[in-house]
Amino acid sequence: MLTRTLLLAGIFSCTVNLLGAQQRWAPAIDSILAVKQIRAFNGVVLIAKDGKVQYEKSIGYADREKKRQLDMDSRFIIMSVTKQITAVMVLQEAEKGRIQLQQTLRTYLPDFPDRWADTITVHQLLNHTSGVVWYDQPLAFTPGSRYAYSNFGYALLKQVLEKVTGQPYRALASILFKKCGMSHSGVAGQLPAIQGYAYSEKVPGEILTPKDTIPDFLLAGAGVVSTAGDLLRWNQHLHGGKLLRDSSYQAMITAWQHRDHSILGRMGAGYGVLLTDDKKEIGHTGYMSQLGFTTINLYFPATRTSMIVLENVAWKESDLPHGFSFEKDILSLISPVAKENHR
Predict the structure, then answer these.
(1) pTM of the model
(2) In angstroms, rounded to a whole number, what is the distance separating the alpha carbons of residues 2 and 250?
(3) For residue range 61-113, what is the model confidence (pLDDT) as tens digits?
(4) What is the 3-state secondary structure (H, E, C) of the chain?
(5) Regarding beta strands 313-314 and 199-203, do their DSSP bridges make them parallel or antiparallel, or are they unpaired?
(6) What is the largest CA-CA distance in the chain?
(7) Closest CA to 21 of 58, 43, 53, 57
(8) Under a CB-based contact definition with an 8 Å cutoff, are residues 277 and 286 in contact?
(9) Predicted confidence (pLDDT) per residue in 279-292, tens digit
C-alpha cells in the first residue's frame, strides 16, 4: 500500500511539474508572439520536454494573398539546421567504415580538380575549419587553423556521401527520415517547401514573395524540408542515442572551434551543430533572406527539452537581430527554466 502511495505521489508530482511549466511558459510565450512593434510573428513554435509537447502555436499566413493560415503541420525549409542531418549521415557511414573522418577529400573524390582536395579532411568540412571557399579558389586559411562558416563545405560532403554510398543525397535523407518517423520531411524538390509561400523583406515594412529556388549545391547544407513535429522526432532520435554510437555522438557535440554567433553569442562548433561550452544547449539557427525562412532548433540535454521555431518570413540581413527577436525572447524564457529544473 505504501509503495502504491509513493508511486501515485511521484506521478502526481511529475504531472504538477509538467503542468507548472506549461502554465509558466504559455502566457509568457503568448505575450512574446503578440508583440508587433518591430514586426508580426509569422510561423510556428513548439516546446517539448521528454518528447511531450508543452507548448505549440501557429500564427500567421501560409499564403498572405489568400489569407490561408499556417498550422502545426506546415512544412518549412529548415535552412542550416539541415547541416546536423548531413553530419549524422556522414558519421553513420564512418561507423560502417566507408568514411574515415581524418582522411582527405581526395580519398573519396579522386578526380576532384582542385589541389586543396589533397589537404582538407572530412573532419574539417564537418566543423567548418577547412578554409574552402569555392571551386578554383585558394583556401582562405590553413586547414584546421580556425573557423569559417561554409555552405560549400557541406556541398562537398554531399559529394562524398553520394560517392561512397552510390545513392543520391535525397534518397539517403529519405532513409534517415523513415528511421526517425519523420513522415512530413524530405529535401527541397521532393516535397512542397511549405503549404503556401515564403516571404522576404525588401525594405522595412514591404514583404515580397521570394522567387529564388534553392540551388543543388545548398541541399546538404540548407535544403531539408520539415515540420516542427518532425524536428522534435529528430531531436529525440539524435540526442536519445538512436542514430549514432556514443563515440560518434560525442565527436559531433565536441567544440572543435568557437564562433561568435549573432544570435546565440559565443558558441562551440561541432559537426553541424553549435553548443555552449557546458553542453547545456545544442542546436542551430537557419536563415537565408532570399529564400524567406528563419529557423531555430535547440535542445537542452539536462531536461531533454526542445525549442523549435520556424518562420516563413525572413528580414533583410542588415536587420537580422530583429529577424530573430522572437526566438531570442523565447530562448531567454526557456533556457533558465531548463537549468532550474535540472537543479
Answers:
(1) 0.90
(2) 42
(3) 998 888 999 999 999 999 999 999 999 999 999 999 999 999 999 999 999 99
(4) CHHHHHHHHHHHHHHHHHHHHHHHHHHHHHHHHHCCCCCCCCEEEEEEECCEEEEEEEECEEECCCCEECCCCCCEECHHHHHHHHHHHHHHHHHCCCCCCCCEHHHHCCCCCCHHHHCCEHHHHHCCCCCCCCCCCCCCCCCCCCCCCCHHHHHHHHHHHHHHHCCCHHHHHHHHHHHHCCCCCEEECCECCCCCCCEEEEECCEEECCCCCCCHHHHHHHCEEECHHHHHHHHHHHHCCCCCCHHHHHHHCCCCEEEEECCCEEEEECCCCEECCCCCCEEEEEEECCCCEEEEEEEECCCCEEEEEEECEECCHHHHHHHCHHHHHHHHHHHHHHHHHHC
(5) parallel
(6) 75
(7) 53
(8) no
(9) 999 999 999 888 88
Q: In the block, which residue shows the cell 523565447?
A: 330
| Contacts (Cβ under 8 Å, ≥6 apart) of 196 | 61, 62, 63, 68, 70, 74, 312
Q: How far apart are CA 231 and CA 44, in angstroms?
A: 12
| Cell output for 155 | 556541398
Asked if 311 contacts 295 with a C-beta cutoff of 8 angstroms, the reply is yes
Phi, psi of 107 (to 5 degrees): -55, -35
Which cell goes with 66?
489568400
